[in-house]
Amino acid sequence: MERISKAIAKHSKLILLLAIILVIPAAFGYFKTDVNYDILSYLPEETSTMQAEKILKDDFGCGSVAMLIVEDMPDKDVAKIKEKVAKLDGVKKALWVDDFIDLSVPKEILPKDMTDLLYNGDKSTMIIVMLKEGTATLTTQNTVQQIRNIVGKQGFLSGMSGIIKDTKDCADGEMPLYVIIAAVLTLIVLLLTMESTVVPFVFLLSIALAIIYNFGSNIILGEISYITKALAAVLQLGVTMDYSIFLLHRYDEELERTPDRIDAMSNAIQNTFVSIIGSSTTTVAGFLALCAMDLTLGMDMGIVMAKGVIIGVLCTVTILPSLILIFDGPIHKYKHRTILPAFEKTSNFVVKHYKKLAVLFIIIFIPAFIGNNKAEVYYNLDESLPDDFPSIIATNKMKDDYNMESTDFILISDKLDSNDVSSMIKELEKVDGVNSVIGLEKYIGPAISQDIIPDEILSELKAGGYEEMMLNSKYRAASDECNAQLTEIEHIVHKYDPSALVGGEAPLTKDLIRIADSDFKKVSAVSIIAIFVIITIVFKSVSLPVILVAAIECAIFANLGIPYYTGKIEPFIASIVLGTIQLGATVDYAILMTSRFKEELEYTDDKFEAMRLAIKHSAGSIMTSALSFFSATIGVGVISQLELIGSLCSLMSRGAIISMFMIIFILPGLLLVFEPVIRKTSKGFEPDKKQKAATDAVN
């Protein structure tokens, strides 16, 4: 490492030139990486609902369905719109009343359930649009826009394809703002907390390059989720800022020992690399724990964020030293006072009241744990969008005007007896909350042979050994009523055909709920165990991992428990990933405080003096790091119209501050209370006799 660090320090200009050149392939990779806006597509492929979606797309040519409501328009004009929509490249078929009777025939002769399905009195009518591809494909998204252009202000397109279109448009428009506001707020924090006026700009440039490389390397994954794209940059900025601070502080220390800047930087790189490897390992482990999720969104987020931390570390020991050496003059010339206190009073307060602070830990932990376990989450993706988005307006019209909240697709064997199918349809229609069931047997009856039906019509309803039916429900996906309804629907369908499949947004969301609950427990366990093991190895201790993880978990419980006491319902993804992110990102604070405490104990038997010095020397770094993480995320939480993104960033920003207070005030109290246990169960916590003798001699 010595030779490498010396080479880095000597060739700063060359390294900076290479760093700039690497931006070109990184930019290429960024623009060639696809973005997935459909969270439901991350469900495991082996689930029956995902199998149903695959069959619908591959065999029936129907990737998704949307409902187009047309208001205040004569039927003849609606028919023209339907024809235009049906001719679009992304549309398989558009179904309306003129597919059943001629418009010259009074619609009153249609079955009542069909008129109830397609008409809201004289106010509006509904066209069922069957799309060729899935909800999030580029073809479908373009088709959604084309349909909206065709119908104008008199049309409202409901369904997941419209919701994803609005999500995509909003996210694409906001994402540049996320990075800008995160950078500006972080810059302000750094200017206030660091002595040099130039350093914050140098730090941001180095981290910006690391973020560009990370996003460019995502091309190896093929695609990333829009959640990952929105969060990865601000998280990488907030999490890796620590490493930059560590390097600069070490460089300044080395300059006091040697006037040679190259040697000072070489030594700083060596020492910083060793320290941040331990620090970054816990963060990487926390992010990689997301890969344990059955919902493959976790792997998507985990890999990108863990990769970002690793790239951040590499840039910290290569590009940042080059920037510091090049701008060394201005960095040390333009200095100012910081807002950070000396932490003298803070350290004295904590040491004096350590027992009370340890008791405060228990007082906080109990309600935090209860709130964390009882906090409610929502799974409906449309709840994360503003009410004035076109898809949400259309969704509300479906509910208010047609009493329809969700559409399910039922796939049964095409060999099933027509009488059984008719009986099944009748049973399904009696299920509470079912508005209508559309199936072949319902309209031709079991007495009429299907052989007389033209092949082009029959092929729309039968393919790949399955027969397709559509069921409309007045219950909203993810609601308790809808999930109970789906359970009853599945029971009825499987009674007639054990191999039948039920698909659609509501069944997919039901699977999402089931898997998300399992993922939450799994990810929490994996992240805690991984970080527990790392801390055990770092400190060679049995007791310290318990104390440190308990302190961070208390901060996480408090963060996730607050919504329960304030009555706020957070998106489901927050409960799964937030704990892991907060644990991985802020456990560094606990390690820093504990390491300094251990270091001070080598010089003295007085644990109180050791802790006082540990707080005094580490609180500034912890506060700067926490405030940087806070500033990188809070701006996004405030400005984002996408509640899924905004809520996650707000929770992360709050989590950084809660963790900061937990580590500066509560953890020292716990360490002092359990210091006798720590000494007996840890290696290296006994005073070094030589160092202690040297200290005593100086005193």
What value does the Rg take, in angstroms?
A: 30 Å
Strand-residue proportion? 5-15%
Low-confidence stretches: none
Secondary structure tally: strands: 14
Main β sheet profile: 5 strands, antiparallel
State the end-to-end CA separation: 37 Å
- Determine the fraction of residues in helical runs and give it as a percent range: 55-70%
Overall morphology: elongated
Q: What is the average per-residue confidence, as pLDDT, rounded to a whole number?
A: 87
Q: Enumerate how many helices there are, as a single number.
A: 27
Given helix and strand content, the structural type is alpha+beta
InterPro entries: MMPL_dom, Mycobact_MmpL
Domain Membrane transport protein MMPL: 44-327, 470-674
Subcellular location: Cell membrane
Keywords: Cell membrane, Membrane, Transmembrane, Transmembrane helix
Explain how this protein is built:
- With 699 residues, the chain is of the alpha+beta class.
- Helix content is 68%, strand content 9%.
- The strands form 4 sheets. Strands 2, 3, 4, 5 and 6 form a 5-stranded antiparallel β-sheet that branches. Strands 9, 10, 11, 12 and 13 form a 5-stranded antiparallel β-sheet that branches.
- A hairpin with a 3-residue loop joins strand 4 and strand 5 (124-131).
- It starts with a helix and ends with a helix.
- The model has no long low-confidence stretch (mean pLDDT 87).
- Its main location: membrane.
- Pfam families: MMPL (PF03176).
